[in-house]
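Example record

The entry below shows one chain as it appears in the dataset: sequence first, then structure tokens.
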Amino acid sequence: MQKNNHFVADHLRKYFFVFASIIFIGLLNNIVSFLLPISIGEFFTLHFHTGSSKGKLLNWLGLNVNTTKHFFVLFWFLLFTKTILTLVESYGTFSQGELFVKNLRENVFSAQMGWLKLFEKALLKL
């Protein structure tokens, strides 16, 4: 039994760039979410003058923070980036969801109107 439900595939083909952008933004959002606790570990390294594995990981990633001022610049940048990426990802996801439901509703309505015409013809024959 083969299904004729091709609404999702059609929607993905029609709006592929938007979906790819949302996935890419989500990936960047997850990377920033990963960097936030690592940067907090670097703060403790700066504040208590000890070495931590999170600080070493941050240095290994190429983000060298030498002073508390540099830490706060990095931390606020990460927070701002996280906020913007979360808002853009949520907006894109919700707008694509609404657009998909709108298109699906229009297709179902037009199909039901076609059924109504068939019923009218059948009733007129009686």
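Notes for this example: The CA atoms of residues 42 and 48 lie 10 Å apart. Residues 7-94 form one domain.
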